[in-house]
């Protein structure tokens, strides 16, 4: 008998009293009617609590804000699907600082490690817990690019913000590689005190964009 | 084991690995109680986390509804486990993942070690996993000439300190910052000799130490917090980014997961990802959660394996009064609120799983007859704090009482009652050594009411008295113990006990 058959047979035997389980009560909140302005305020509050830096801007200011956030970086990586217009102000003197990660021509881990920052968009954000979800789409890139560089600049279009996790899950394609980010990397392993910045990006800048 | 036939009832097959304690709980607890530094560290840490948890739980108006959904979901999973496991395997495999089944610790260790050797490497990076700790994977790999590097900060502290974990979420909770610094100075190659004990600098030292390993590792070993049957998706919940490193950069990823970790589908994540972070680190959400479904071309590991582990889980499932222990999502809230854990620490429980959950899960996995583990169900005052804190509402005190009964039954069969008597005496010693301890014990009284049926008679008593109740029913105890009544009616006495809270 294979290990699988044997384990399944043990389970069947363990359940011979045929336990019946009650249906799952879903009485918790699954929808919210919080106005968009309040959603933004809530998300900002949560992200700042995690020690992320947050800008809230109109779409016309986006390019300038990105340039400001990337000011200190000697190099930055973008996924191939990022909107070129976002980078207009960040590259006044040509694109020497920019590295594009393209499927089929990806940057090596060492190249990523030698890159100061990364700019991505995001798929959906949950205001109540301050969580931003990346799903590997063209404007977010494969997981390694938003992990290895030490500084992540992440754009959150206002239309992608919801209040509750149950509102966010239907917007996620669960079979894509998903990364849920709630602040910069942190640890509470020493005396349970939270310290920001361990192996993931130590600096997280979020740009929430109205009208996007 | 090969004489077990499909569909025929079989005897439970218990687990092995780092589950068997070396000495009975009372003896170990007695020794650990002498470690005052550890007790001070623990007290500080558990109180910090308790306050954080209460704050973020209080923010949610629907916390109780989430707990109800969480408990019901896990009961559903256990009742439908075979179908869900098949569904998960089908979906995970369809997306390019490879599943292995392991009956016990030894089989799981061999599978993982063979997979690593296929990749021609003698090093792996690991992200914290209770399952691999339970099966003793690191020790096994070492025998095979493979070095396993723990990458979670707390696990790193434990590994470098040649120590044992004492908490499931924060395995180095028993060490304070100064002790951590001393371990780093002694054990970390190339560490800055001027390293101070500031937690931020200690975290930075760990980052330096592990960075090269992450960027060059060919194989990673992980655990998993959840597995979604309807999509074949796995989830790892973490804080530091070491999990993301392990799950993203190496070419080969081997995940070891107990068969009880399944959830029916995506919708269930909305419950568990609210319950887990708030209960464990007391945060609204943990910094990073990674989800992957088999292999994604061009993103992350292309050689993806999952080892599904039994190791006594089916035996726990066979105990109809104890099976809800498998609903545990390893948040650690029960140990953070436990008055016994706070004083004895995690090492006294001697198993991978300490605290209230360990006191029930360990003997359920190994069998109560497993010599010293039978003392674990006595490692509790039955105060009920663990039940109140548990996000999936596992009634730990009730299962403790049930297991004590099992223990007595099995010992009576083997004429081993004196040894239990021994334990009782040690228990009594502890109880009577201070009025506070006795008070804790007496809080167990309302439980006696629970054990009693509607007719207010107790049909079966736990522990040594079980033999006596076999032939007669006794009236349930009063809802209020004498000391409780005294406290309520004699104000001054109450003031002195309150401050200990
Ligand atoms: S028993 Fe409940 S409280 Fe304890 S670790 Fe498991 S889920 Fe958390």
Key words describing this protein structure:
heterodimer, A: 212 residues, Rossmann fold, 4-stranded mixed β-sheet, B: 501 residues, alpha/beta, 24 helices, 50% helix, globular, binds iron/sulfur cluster
Topology:
The complex is a heterodimer of chains A (212) and B (501).
Chain A: H1 3-14, H2 36-49, E1 53-58, H3 62-69, E2 76-79, E3 98-101, H4 109-113, E4 117-120, E5 124-126, E6 131-134, E7 151-157, E8 161-162, H5 165-168, E9 178-181, E10 186-187, E11 195-196, E12 203-210
Parallel strand pairs in A: 1-12, 2-3, 2-4, 4-7, 5-8, 7-12
Antiparallel strand pairs in A: 5-6, 6-9, 10-11
Chain B: H1 25-33, H2 36-58, H3 63-79, H4 81-94, E1 98-102, H5 105-118, E2 123-126, H6 130-134, H7 137-143, E3 147-150, H8 153-160, H9 177-187, H10 199-216, E4 219-222, E5 226-228, E6 233-238, H11 242-248, E7 252-258, E8 262-263, H12 266-280, E9 288-293, E10 303-309, H13 313-318, H14 333-336, H15 339-344, H16 355-366, H17 385-389, H18 396-413, H19 417-433, H20 435-442, H21 445-451, E11 457-458, H22 466-470, E12 474-475, H23 482-489, H24 491-498
Parallel strand pairs in B: 1-10, 2-3, 2-4, 4-7, 5-8, 7-10
Antiparallel strand pairs in B: 5-6, 6-9, 11-12
Helix pairs in contact in B: 3-12, 16-18, 19-20, 23-24
The complex binds iron/sulfur cluster (SF4).
The site of iron/sulfur cluster (SF4) has 14 residues of chain B, from helix 14.
